[in-house]
Amino acid sequence: SESVAQKGNGKDNAALVEKLSKVGSSDFEVQCFSDMSKQPLYLNASELNNMRRSLLVKLREKIVQTNTPNYYFDDPRVCCKDERKVCVPKKIAEVSATEEIATCAFADAFVLTPAKMEADLLHAMLRSAGEKKCYLRLPKIVRGKELSFFKDLLCSLDVGVYADNLYAVAFARQYNKPYIAGFGLNVFNSVTASLFADADHVCASVEYPFYGDLIYRAGKMPLMSFAHCPFSVVYPRECGSCKQEKDTIYYQNGNNRYKMLRRRSASCDFTLYEDKITYYPILEKRSCFYSLIGLTGSEKKEVITCISEEIGE
Questions:
Q1: pLDDT 10s digits, 86-105
Q2: CA distance 161 to 123
Q3: Quick one: 81-218 is in which CATH superfamily?
Q4: For the chain, what percent of residues have pLDDT higher than 90?
Q5: What are the sequence ranges of the domains in the chain?
Q6: Is the pLDDT confidence value at 310 over 60?
Q7: Residue from 195, 132, 197 nearest 160 by CA
Q8: CB 158 within 8 A of CB 178
Q9: Neighbouring residues of 129: CB distance < 8 A, sequence distance ≥ 6
Q10: Cβ neighbours of residue 124 closer than 8 Å, sequence gap 6 or more
Q11: 275: which of 33, 101, 257, 267 fits an S-S bond (Cβ 3.0–4.6 Å)?
Q12: Given this model, what pLDDT does residue 244 score?
């Protein structure tokens, strides 16, 4: 009150705005504001509204920073900041087999998506990854016996969790496992990012075209998960008598081709991928160059053609 009443008395609006713009840099809170000067204090309504808006912005930033000491997001593209220093986005490759790890030497970490959730296979993949961190992608739909299955599996492995929904985040927190806040959580601004401040990595929403945070196998983005078994529709049978060995089903709809992958744990789960690349989530924009990762020669030509048509070159 002393500084506002005495130092603010007789100041013009610009000077008052400058003084109030420093609110938030001190260790004190403003609990009330009152004019204790004996002379009238005049402020334009527009200036008062501008100051109020500025203070609300700073208050919001302070709240986010206080609740996310290690990760603070203020960029609309959800750039990660550690102790207010901009971090280089991590390249995290999704791999389903041990041999794929060697071809992804560029990756800083791996998301493991084996076709069969077996401890021996996962141990082999962890050995192949060396000192790089690995995260097990949990199915989006987990019920009953699968919960205890994944609890035992995670507790027996030095591996984190790739969380695509809130149950997987809670699962990782419950068993003190590091985790990645995945695309399924749709992190699109600082408020949603602050909910996952304890995550090792946070993936920006796929609404941002060049997020560059996670690189999927051959660039395929998962489209949806299934709670039912599509094999039972094509080959009617009960789960107990199922001898279907194929883990992939291809589906053609006009010019679009889709691929469905099965993973086996306590039961099976299915994820649908777009098999024909019609978008560019794996492109990394560096200055005016694009890096094409994990594509065959024909796929590279297709993507380059699409880019050329889009930018008119």
A1: 445 567 788 888 888 887 77
A2: 15
A3: Copper homeostasis (CutC) domain (3.20.20.380)
A4: 6
A5: 2-67, 81-218, 222-274
A6: no
A7: 132
A8: no
A9: 101, 110
A10: 98
A11: 257
A12: 61
